[in-house]
Amino acid sequence: MALTGKQVRQLRSLAHHLNPVIIIGKADVTDGTVEQANEALEAHELIKCSVLDTASMDVREAAEELAGRCHAEIVQVIGRKFSIYRETSRDDVEKIELV
Q1: CA 44, 46, 48 angle in degrees (round to 5)?
Q2: CA 28 to chain centre
Q3: DSSP notation for 6-58
Q4: Residue 75 φ/ψ region, left for φ over 0, alpha for ψ in the -120 to 50 degree band, beta for the rest
Q5: Mean pLDDT by 10-residue block, N- to C-terminus, for the chain (99 residues)?
């Protein structure tokens, strides 16, 4: 699902106030990282991730790999942080209403 410009702007404004829940370090994007991200996306739909200086990947590469492996959309990459979005399949989670 490709996001429209309006939806990206809406998600960026929501992600601004989030703290990173996934931190990518020296081991880069591992299966454990992907599993954690999938759980966080199912619970929250929108998550912020951080890439440490010790990672061998740059931030854009890490965002693309994690989003690809989680079947999510990249919302924003800025500095050492990025945000990704995926609609949850759970019914007990309050879903983000995209415009």
Answers
A1: 115
A2: 15
A3: HHHHHHHHHHTTPPPSEEE-TT-S-HHHHHHHHHHHHHHSEEEEEE-TT-SS-
A4: alpha
A5: 91 97 95 97 97 95 97 97 95 90
**Which SS3 state, helix, strand or coil, does residue 94 take?**
coil
Sign of CA dihedral 51, 57, 61, 67: negative
Q: What is the pLDDT of residue 13?
A: 97
Q: Is the dihedral of CA 27, 42, 49, 18 positive or negative?
A: negative
The edge-to-edge listing of strands for the beta sheet with 22-24 is 22-24, 46-51, 81-85, 73-78
Through-space distance between the first and last CA atoms of the chain, rounded to whole angstroms = 14
